[in-house]
Amino acid sequence: MKKNWLTHLCLATIFVFASCTKDEVLDAEPTTQDISEDFSSKALKPIGSGVMMQAFYWDVPAGGTWWNKVKNKAASWSNAGIDAIWLPPVSKAQNGAFSMGYDPFDYYDFGNYNQMGSTETRFGSKSELQSLITTAHNNGLSVIADIVINHNSGGDSEWNIFSNKNTYTDYNPKSNLFNRTQYDFHPNDYHSNDWGVFGGFADLCHHKTYVQDWLWNKSNSVAKYYKNTMKFDGWRFDYVKGFEPWVPKEFRNAVGGFAVGEYWDGNVNTLNWWVNEAQMSAFDFACYYKMRDAFVGNNLNALSGDMLWKRNASRAVTFVANHDTDEIYNNKLLAYAYILTHEGYPAIFYRDYEEWLDKNKMNNLIWIHNNLAGGSTTNLWTDNDEYIAKRNGGGGKNGLIVYINNSNSWQERWVETNWSSRTIKDYTGNSGWEPVTQGGRWVKIQAPPKGYTVWSLK
Ligand code: ZN
Ligand code: ZN
Ligand code: ZN
Q1: The domains spanning 39-373 and 378-457 adopt the same CATH topology
Q2: Taking the model in full, what pTM does it have?
Q3: Apex CA 186: angle with CA 182 and CA 190, to 5°?
Q4: What is the pLDDT of residues 5-30, one digit of tens each?
Q5: How much distance in Å is there from the Cα of 1 to the middle of ligand 2?
Q6: What are the structural domain ranges in the chain?
Q7: Cβ(164)–Cβ(158) under 8 Å?
Q8: How far is the CA of 325 from the centre of ligand 3 (A)?
Q9: What DSSP state is assigned to residue 370?
Q10: Superfamily designation of domain 378-457
Q11: Which ligand has the shortest distance to the CA of 381?
Q12: Per-residue pLDDT tens for 238-289?
């Protein structure tokens, strides 16, 4: 939420025809489209095997071109090692063709109903969205929907018997699905409020059976429609501070899939409590703020602080920037070197990858994440301007040693590896050294000024 408002298919096909005759295929499946959807979804990369792409930023170009732009990047992102893309909220919002989607009005208008001043959303039409999702799937990419269910916007005014005034709580969307009234928002006949309201928006009451039915229980609920009809694979829940953790948990339980919540809080105890309650991942804001202190504050000792990935790596989505916050404006590549060599599921911000940073260096770090960064983490050295950590290997990956240097000169240090009498090299290409570890596994490595190296078996 914005705080300041305001050729997998080909392989699958080969597999089909190699394993059975054409007649069997046609008997088993009513249409060829069903076959391709079935097999392409089986070919999706496991989420977490690679890296997530946040496929938007605040105020991407309007005009209904964004879905096509993302679609055209799907193949190259997949080749680079991305395994999932996170899209902005896809349904029609109050600001129509200008909205980034976080003021949702009609959850079932994907740019196919003329309301709120336009038919298409800011990002495009429903068919363009579906084409993007199909293309992503054909490239092995999961597609994560941004689910905004704390608040709504754009209802008509009605006399509200709970507020004793007129409120904008009368929702009659053109889809004619999930119509809402004052009984579905706070205050109502159940209670006066939940955990959080957002900027004066109409605040949905998730305790109401009617709201639960439309969000996740009914066969055409938001959750089931997005999963089964729109073919989304995972969920990013917006502003989860606005309600209790059982809300996104129930939503996800209705449809399965990867899920991550935006619990915007740097307190690692709170984040860890939330992921355990909601039984899903959270963005690692603790890691984010410690990286800010380390890389902008020029004190790498901050990396010794507590982070969600250190407590609960399988539930931490690490990130360096997002559509709301971009405080790590210094040494940003060093921050990416950190999250792409450490535990947690890293998310890359569109502008960093496509516009602001060196794409070759980003691709190199993504490769290192996907191919070397396995196993637990051991810190080897931390001071104000140097940081060295070891991934101990596992899951078919050899592990690595990452050396981050925030000083203005080359640095060298002896470190204890897990390898005895083996040649290692720097997979970033920043150092040309190819040292041999001693019998006792020690070796001297180096890192360039304001740079990093990542060492593993040659
Ligand atoms: Zn409520
Ligand atoms: Zn709320
Ligand atoms: Zn130092």
Answers
A1: no
A2: 0.91
A3: 90
A4: 443 333 333 333 333 333 333 333 33
A5: 13
A6: 39-373, 378-457
A7: no
A8: 29
A9: H
A10: Golgi alpha-mannosidase II (2.60.40.1180)
A11: 3
A12: 999 999 999 999 999 999 999 999 999 999 999 999 999 999 999 999 999 9
